[in-house]
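Project outcomes to date are best conveyed with an example. Our students and postdoctoral researchers have been running inverse folding experiments weekly, and each run begins with a structure described purely in tokens. The record below, which covers 340 residues, was selected by the lab manager from last quarter's runs and is presented without edits.
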């Protein structure tokens, strides 16, 4: 059987549904595992190139690549999919490999590369995206973190038919989950990954059973964008309300981690709780530094520090670090520096 020309839609073989996959982190790997375990043929997996990680900065494969190799699935790691970009050779190789794979559908989950028109047009039934928000709220790169940061009561998974816009395609299904008071980006990502894995298998089974399920255009109202998380956002601004800082602490766990300066040290704050505070307290002022409670004034209220990490150390309950922090200058009346 000959391969279709680049850009030509291919049809699934043998009456089944051949599912190509594009994704990178553990969130995506859970979806890929569910697709394979459900019995769908996966003729090609696209994932990001290996990246240096850890103290030794050794090249590490993505979670999706690790799973794909364990399941003996073909893997390709192009640096770009743009034929007119910086790596046209990678893009051309990906185009040829995807055409040769003859997928009925391409499933995309946290891939990290934008799909150009040739990739969107190639699969017979288009491309489905597993997006970690209730679209049209939080289109973009960091929907889980921005939902926590904003104080949203719920979020979820959207299975979407991809188009050329940024998360603007028609909705196949929505799957809701509440955001708990203690949810971090890590815990919510794990829960949404499980929901997304089940949702995409259900969508693929619907395709296999008799065609595309009904799609709903995204409403024009309620659109918001989840900007990529920047390391500069880690610095705690004590002028913000305590409740806002507490949400950011949870939203930035595990990356980039909320942080503040104490003398020459930069400490990571991994868990905190907002409390009322006297109106005349200055933002950044240490209000309590006893062994049982570490409290810092904010623009509105105060923040109790519950879990900290010193440079080179591990996460610890803040109470266990009280003596060491006091020796470093964390004492009542001390004002922690504000970001410039």
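After processing, the design step wrote out the following sequence:
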């Amino acid at each position: 059987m000959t391969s279709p020309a680049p850009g030509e839609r291919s049809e699934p073989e043998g009456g089944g549904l051949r599912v190509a996959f594009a994704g990178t982190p553990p969130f995506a790997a859970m979806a890929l595992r569910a697709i394979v375990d459900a019995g769908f043929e996966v003729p090609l997996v696209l994932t990001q190139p290996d990246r240096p990680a850890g103290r030794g900065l050794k090249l590490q494969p993505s979670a999706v690549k690790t799973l794909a190799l364990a399941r003996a699935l073909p893997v390709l790691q192009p640096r770009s999919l743009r034929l007119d970009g910086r790596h046209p050779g990678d893009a051309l190789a990906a185009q040829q490999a995807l055409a040769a794979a003859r997928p009925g559908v391409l499933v995309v989950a946290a891939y990290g590369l934008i799909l150009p028109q040739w990739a969107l047009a190639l699969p017979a039934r288009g491309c489905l995206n597993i997006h970690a928000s209730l679209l049209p709220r939080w289109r973009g790169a960091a929907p889980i973190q921005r939902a926590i940061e904003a104080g949203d009561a719920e979020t979820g998974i959207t299975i979407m038919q991809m188009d050329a816009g940024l998360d603007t395609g028609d909705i196949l299904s929505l799957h809701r989950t509440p955001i708990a008071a203690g949810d971090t980006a890590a815990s919510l990502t794990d829960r949404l990954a499980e929901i997304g894995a089940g949702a995409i298998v259900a969508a693929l089974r619907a395709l296999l059973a008799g065609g595309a399920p009904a799609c709903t255009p995204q409403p024009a109202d309620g659109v918001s964008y989840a900007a990529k998380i920047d390391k500069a956002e880690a610095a705690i601004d004590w002028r913000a309300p305590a409740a806002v800082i507490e949400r950011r602490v949870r939203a930035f766990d595990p990356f980039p981690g909320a942080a503040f300066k104490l003398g020459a040290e930069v400490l990571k704050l991994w868990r905190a709780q907002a409390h009322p505070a006297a109106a005349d307290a200055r933002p950044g002022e240490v209000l309590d530094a006893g062994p049982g409670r570490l409290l810092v004034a904010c623009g509105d209220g105060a923040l109790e520090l519950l879990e900290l990490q010193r440079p080179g150390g591990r996460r610890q309950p803040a109470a266990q670090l009280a003596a060491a922090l006091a020796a470093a200058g964390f004492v009542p009346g001390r004002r922690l520096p504000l970001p410039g």
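The longest strand covers residues 265-275. The chain has eight helices and 17 strands. The training component of this project remains on track.
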